[in-house]
Amino acid sequence: MDGPELLGEVFSSKVRAAVLGHLLPRPHLGFSLTDLSRVLGLPVSSVQHECYKLERIGVIKARRTGSSRPYKVVAGSPLRAPLTALIAAALGRERVLRGAVDGVPGLRAAFLAGELPPVGDAGGGGAACFLVLVGEVPLETLDETHRRVEDLLGVAPATVELAFFRPNDWQDRIAQGNPHALGLMAGPRTELLGEGDHTR
Asked: What is the pTM of this model?
């Protein structure tokens, strides 16, 4: 498939754009056609047609799991990174960042503390930004979530610092007036998961 034809396949449908807008911020999750139809409020037939085309050009792939065939983003697709950046620019960074923490097992709360770094930031001495995660989450999952957030922000690795707390530890630190915990709460926050009141 040559360049112009490929561009036509990617950009020629609003339904396709909706599918990409949901899947690309959530590469860790799989969605069946029924899931996507429900989430996007679109007919299954329309979603199926667009998923077929996106699978044909290698952006997503369905893998059978029991009786369903959930679609996931293809990690090695050369279109993944530029399309993800486009989705983040079009939908807004805050909206797509919520996708990065969607469905993470054991995660109770998540927010970014501090000003969001500019796209392309390589962590060269700007104001600190922390990804704060509260829950019972395995180390490997924490690292994957951290990487997804930085990918969606469009910044270099280690630009955003990770601050992880187990729920009881977080609550104790807040109750005891721990300066680090209170500092994370005091400045600008971008809420990703939870009710926004992270003091309990």
From this structure: 0.86
